[in-house]
Structure formats: C-alpha cells, structure tokens
Amino acid sequence: MTSTTPTGHPAQQEPEVISLLTAGRLLGMGRTKAYRLAKAGEFPCRVLRIGGRYAVPVRGLRALLDYTNEASSESCPAREDG
Predict the structure, then answer these.
(1) H or E segment to which residue 19 belongs
(2) How far is CA 33 from the centre of its chain?
(3) Across all residues in the chain, what is the average pLDDT?
(4) How far apart are the first and last CA of the chain?
(5) Helix, strand or coil, per DSSP, at residue 40
(6) Is the pTM of this model over 0.90?
C-alpha cells in the first residue's frame, strides 16, 4: 500500500509569513520604526494586515535580501530614499 502523506515533518518547514517585528529585525530596524513604516505603507517589503496584526511574507523578504535562487512574483522592489 502506498502512503499519500508528505515525508517531511511540518515543524521543519519554513513558515509562509513572519511577524513584522521579526522582519524588521532582519532588516536592522527596531520595533517602533518597523511599525511606523508598515502603518505608513512604506515598509521596504510587502506587509499583510491580518486582523489587528501585521505579517510579512517570507518569500518577499528573501527576495529583498537576495536569498532566492529563482524569480518571485512577490519580490520587493528596491527603494531609493532621498
């Protein structure tokens, strides 16, 4: 009989989204700045508002940080400040 369940453990898979605070820390910013930018729509990556919380798609954050090996439709465009 063949099993149809995935062979990998769910705990070992990466999440699809992370918290705004975690994403901000990966980008070198503090909590206040991360939330201020998200609220103003100026966070350097796509931010989702889910209920009263902010979430950042990991795929877009990786694209911003150049960690992806393939092109992504959720990539974040580079921002030029100033």
Answers:
(1) strand 17-19
(2) 16
(3) 80
(4) 63
(5) helix
(6) no
pLDDT of residue 70: 47
Query: Averaged over 25-36, what is the pLDDT?
Result: 96
Question: Could you tell me where the DSSP H helices lie in the chain?
Answer: 20-26, 31-40, 58-64
- Please check whether residue 72 is in contact with residue 60, taking contact to mean a CB–CB distance below 8 angstroms: yes
How many helices (H) and strands (E) would you count in the chain? 3, 3
CA distances from 74 to 20, 32, 56, 59, 80 (A): 16, 25, 11, 7, 19
Q: How confident is the model at residue 50 (pLDDT cuts 50, 70, 90)?
A: very high
Q: For residue 26, with 0-12 CB atoms within 10 Å meaning exposed, 13-18 middle and 19 or more buried, which class applies?
A: middle
Q: CA–CA separation, 71 vs 61, rounded Å?
A: 13
